[in-house]
Design goal:
Strand order of the largest sheet: 9-8-10-11
Protein name: BglG family transcription antiterminator
Strand content: 5-15%
Structural class: alpha/beta
Keywords: Repeat
Organism: Microbacterium aoyamense
Number of helices: 26
Largest sheet: 4 strands, parallel
Pfam families: PRD, PTS_EIIA_2
Number of domains: 5
Radius of gyration: 28 Å
Number of strands: 15
Length: 640
């Protein structure tokens, strides 16, 4: 029973918030229902006086103490905590550690410590560090910057999903680390002073920067500071930020940072957590840009806008994204990646936006050589989503008619209240003041009526002449049902065109991601829909970022809509199979034709929405013994 699987179980329940059966959770984790029950017992044992996971007739759900359980350490004798303790000892001992003495100190056998040292070696990939062993001595060799990257990796491992956790940071650096309890005030003052300089502060990214500041302060207190950059040019912005960091470090941490550390940390602040404020002239912002970066971003954004038919090719979007990409280039040189705690939710909730971000990331990778990770792609997705939210078309609003028999200005007051309370969801297109309107002639999406309608239907919502909070909630609920019904109706129409009995497989047990893509791809190749090149490009797309958009569904596909016609091959896995960092039960290899660009958004967004509901997934998987059963169950779920 591993801590990682316990945390994964708790994370699933906390994210969904609903009841889940042991069987469905077992499918998500790739274990047995009996193991789920054991994990629940172990998780609840972390908070003896509380409830991390609640049990009931419907299964399990997260309890009020779920977050506290995630933060509980399991003791220094646990493998991960012992490993981190060992790494810290190696980092703090320039001349190395004695293996036998360290084993005694950690209360383990020398053989166990040897196994831990082997695990340390596995942590060193990409850190430019090496672990040397000579007789009873073991030591780390590498630059100070490389050693700090290793500490950064440990801190991220301690933190839940990249969120800022001062206690986790303290555990990583050691209980005696400098100023461990001072970083809350330090962070607040840093944000305030950066804001005073006219910067927007990215609160998501600042956790990483504070973590690096903590690491720097701890290392400097042990006489392990970074050397100065010599004759390297220091920009005025760097000098301003460095001065703030120097002052706050002395004030809160009682540490005097050297020139090398200040320059390094100022660069991190400028490339990770700040952006020009709204009153910063665009010409001034552009002056900070390298022309090549702006040109590449402009070209890639134009391609994405054309490929996905999305309205993102705006100057302000291009400028802000180009500044972000330039900062990303600086981070890439130092392998200083930013964690994004919203990555998973962005991918599962906005798959289309994430897919546009992957396309942009792929173009940047080809043109600028940036090795992009999921967290970095998520930041690009946030830029894309922000732009699309600003440019959202007014025709996405539902049209509504108000029926309110005339009495003085009552109907005018009601319309004003509806506009004020519901203006972001609906648009009032008419007001009927007759007591006996022609109900059949009212063809708007919604009818908000203060009298009982003569006809029945989901689009009729009874409200009071003076709008109440309950009225607002009922109208919003009705609007949500109508939008969902329309989305799923479009999905049903599209999917029935793209599915084929010859492109359905049940039983993907024990196959790797590449094997599954090849197997499903061969079915579409046999139909003349795609060729071998498309399959290989689908595998390449998978390497950029996992297409497991939910805990149950993967949608592998190639970048580029090159299929002769749009078609979908379906694979069912029962039990679930590994996919990326998670597990899935349904794999839909999608091949899109250029002629179906508009359908891409429908299929991607709504197909993922259907498979984001655990009960729907279990119903489809359990009853899909063949293609006809799969299609029947899918349609039944869509129709509700």
């Amino acid at each position: 029973m591993t801590r990682a699987r316990q945390d994964r179980l708790l994370g699933l329940l906390a994210r969904d918030g609903d009841w889940a059966t042991a069987a469905s959770l077992a499918d998500s984790l790739g274990v047995t229902p009996r193991s789920i029950r054991s994990y629940v017992t172990a998780v609840n044992a972390r908070v003896p006086q509380g409830s991390a996971i609640e049990s009931g007739p419907q299964g399990y759900r997260s309890g009020p103490d779920a977050a506290a359980a995630l933060r509980v350490t399991v003791g220094a004798d646990a493998p991960r905590d012992r490993l981190h303790t060992l790494v810290r000892r190696l980092l703090d001992a320039p001349d190395g550690i004695d293996v036998f003495e360290t084993a005694d100190a950690l209360h383990v056998s020398p053989a166990t410590l040897d196994a831990d040292l082997a695990r340390v070696r596995s942590l060193l990939g990409g850190t430019e560090l090496t672990l040397e062993r000579s007789a009873s001595q073991a030591r780390l060799r590498g630059t100070e910057m490389a050693q700090r990257r290793l500490l950064s990796r440990l801190a991220h491992d301690e933190m839940d999903a990249g969120s800022f956790d001062l206690e986790a940071l303290r555990r990583t650096l050691g209980e005696g680390s400098v100023g461990a309890r001072a970083f809350g005030p330090f962070k607040n003052d840093l944000v305030t002073q950066l804001g005073a300089l006219g910067y927007f502060v990215n609160e998501i990214g600042i956790a990483d920067v504070v973590m690096h500041i903590a690491i720097a302060a701890d290392r400097v207190s042990r006489d392990r500071g970074l050397e100065g950059a010599g004759s390297a040019e220091v920009r005025p912005a760097q000098q301003e930020v460095a001065a703030i960091l120097a002052s706050l470090s002395e004030q809160h941490l009682d540490v005097r940072l050297g020139a090398g550390d200040l320059q390094h940390l100022a660069t991190l602040v400028l490339t990770r957590v700040v952006a020009p404020g709204t009153d910063t002239p665009s010409d001034h912002a552009r002056s900070r840009l390298e022309p090549e970066v702006e040109a590449v971003v402009r070209d890639v954004v134009g391609q994405a806008a054309s490929e996905f038919l999305v309205d993102i090719a705006h100057e302000d979007f291009i400028l802000r994204l180009a500044l972000h990409v330039q900062n990303l280039l600086h981070r890439a040189k130092e392998q200083a990646w930013s964690r994004n705690p919203l990555t998973r939710s962005l991918k599962s909730t906005y798959p289309m936006i994430f897919e546009v971000a992957v396309f942009i990331a792929s173009g940047l990778h080809e043109r600028l050589g940036i090795p992009l990770l999921d967290d970095e792609i998520a930041y690009i997705a946030m830029h894309v989503g922000g732009r699309l939210e600003r440019s959202r078309r007014a025709d996405q609003l539902l049209a509504a008619t108000i029926v309110c028999p005339g009495y003085y200005e009552l109907h005018e007051l009601l319309r004003s209240s509806v506009d004020r309370s519901l203006g972001q969801a609906i648009e009032v297109v008419g007001v009927e003041t007759r007591v006996d309107p022609d109900w059949s002639s009212i063809d708007s999406d919604l009818v908000l009526t203060t009298i009982d309608p003569a006809v029945a239907g989901d689009r009729f919502v009874r409200i009071q002449p003076f709008l109440t909070d309950a009225d607002v909630e009922r109208v919003q609920a009705a609007a949500g049902r109508i939008r969902r019904a329309r989305r799923l109706a479009r999905l049903r129409e599209e999917l029935e065109r793209y599915f084929s009995p010859d492109a359905f497989v049940r039983g993907l047990d024990g196959q790797s991601t590449d094997d599954v893509i090849h197997r499903l791809g061969s079915l579409l190749i046999a139909q003349g829909v795609i060729d071998d090149d498309y399959v290989e490009r689908a595998i390449q797309r998978e390497e950029l970022s996992s297409t497991a958009f939910t805990d149950a569904l993967a949608v592998p596909h190639a970048i580029g809509m090159t299929a002769s016609r749009t078609s979908i091959a379906i694979g069912i896995a029962d039990p679930s199979i590994p996919w990326g960092e998670g597990r899935v039960q349904v794999v839909a290899l999608v091949a899109f034709s250029e002629n179906d660009r508009e359908a891409f958004q429908t299929v991607f967004e709504q197909f993922v929405e259907v498979f984001s509901e655990r009960d729907s997934v279990q119903r489809i998987v359990r009853r899909s013994s063949d293609f006809a059963g799969f299609l029947d169950e899918l349609v039944a779920v869509i129709d509700g």
